[in-house]
Task: structure prediction
Amino acid sequence: MGFDTSGLLPLSDALQGMLAQLDGCCDSEQLPLPEALGRVLAMDIASPLSVPPFDNSAMDGYAVRLADLAGGAPLIMAGKAFAGQPYQGEWPAGHCVRIMTGAPVPAGTDAVVMQEETQADGDRITFLTTPVPGQNIRRRGEDICEGASVLAAGTRLTAREMPLLASLGIASVSVRRPLKVAIFSTGDELKPVGTPLAHGNIYDSNRYGVRAMLDRMGCDCLDLGIIPDDPAQLRAAFQKADCEADALITTGGVSVGEADFTKQLLEELGEIGFWKLAIKPGKPFAFGRLPHAWFFGLPGNPVSAMVTFDQLVQPALAKLAGQRFERPLQLKAIAAEPLKKAPGRLDFQRGILAQGQNGLEVRSTGSQDSAVFSSLSRANCYIVLERERGRVAAGETVTVEPFGGLLL
Ligand code: AMP
Ligand code: MG
Result:
């Protein structure tokens, strides 16, 4: 696949290289609206109706014709219009109609005058202000015109889209089936939580991070657990994942030397590149394909695994799932303290972003070692330090990337 294994690969090249090869692989299905929450739209949605569907009042007040107000005399209330109960009666000259928010404005209405700008004396209403034409009337189609495109294919349905679709009367939508992603951790030292640790063991934490992020992305996760550094067991796990999932994500075993089993097996089973990325944390990373599934090999170090998932795997899985992916917002902030940095790699340091007296300020969460999990758990942003940049002095401007959906 033409992977560049010499030197360190810039993050943007790795991303581009992956995305160029990946294509949506999920069929679509029709789901009732409530069940479609979290799914990705398979088709563009055009509005079947206008919103609002009729001219209606934006205020509680009185519907008036401007000509009737010209003389300055009070108007007689002809009747009332409620939301859901339009005014049906006659509307003779010199009359107004009492109207509530959301009620259709009677035919001929030029404006609605809010109640607070009137004085009522029984049925005689005095108007304290002169309305302008169209005042306080929400026009038919003002929000959405019938036939207008409202949501594009690839949109993931969240609490923001659900009420919009409901407002259009859409009862079911065509969505992509969730991406099925197999995961396992590799390493003889790993033990599952809930079991005792022998000397030299550590708990497998990566699977919990990866699972949580897959969950957030709306993927179906096939968790194959912990696979020891044993070629036969690794081969079986790779084959099971390849048969049952669209993609496989593993952690550990992709760095030099110790990675030998993984590397050797993947070369036997599929077409895989082992990359050394010019990012920190997260140097070792593998990407490629098994006969039926895409493969992402994350570094074993917990912080590296999370950061490479967030930065690299997330956009790749989004593409496979047919989901439009927007790069997270990057902002400028002032470093409130010096930051250690050596030139050579793009750093994703973990920081705490806060509003300072003169704008946004960011501090480090402390040790940036890729095994130090507290650096991530206490952070709310990445401090993104350019590849060639060295140590940062307090007061310098840096780029920050507030944590996006996966890490919130
Ligand atoms: P590796 O990439 O397999 O060489 O692992 C690098 C470091 O990450 C080692 O210290 C491993 O013990 C640790 N590590 C690997 N996998 C996990 C995991 N699933 N959970 C926690 N730490 C891990
Ligand atoms: Mg290992």
Observations:
- The longest helix spans residues 302-320.
- DSSP finds eight helices and 26 strands in the chain.
- Residues 1-6 have pLDDT under 50 and may be disordered.
- The longest strand covers residues 346-356.
